[in-house]
Amino acid sequence: MAERAGESRSVASRALNNAPHVSRAKREAVERAVRRLGYVPNPTARALATRQTGAAALVISGEDPSISL
After folding, report:
1. How many domains does the chain have?
2. CATH code of the domain containing 18
3. Residue 69: inside a domain, yes or no?
4. Does residue 68 register a pLDDT over 70?
5. 37-58 residue pLDDT tens
6. How confident is the model at residue 15 (pLDDT cuts 50, 70, 90)?
7. 17-27 as b/e, with b when 16 or more CB fall inside 10 Å?
8. How far apart are CA 7 and CA 17, in angstroms?
9. What is the rounded distance in angstroms from the CA atom of residue 59 to the CA atom of residue 48?
10. Structural domain containing residue 18
């Protein structure tokens, strides 16, 4: 996608993540490439890259009759 936009991967990444210090022209080039290619971020890939899933876990230990699963 960065190549299609004619930008570096770092510029494309910053544009996609709404980071500062990306010129309007470069941000628009990346946005055009996103629309042309039908790019949709992959949440699993993002979680692997950032080590953040955005999920919470509930762990229940033992048997509690008041909890029905």
Report:
1. 1
2. 1.10.260.40
3. no
4. no
5. 999 988 888 888 888 888 888 8
6. very high
7. eeeeebeeebb
8. 15
9. 22
10. 2-50
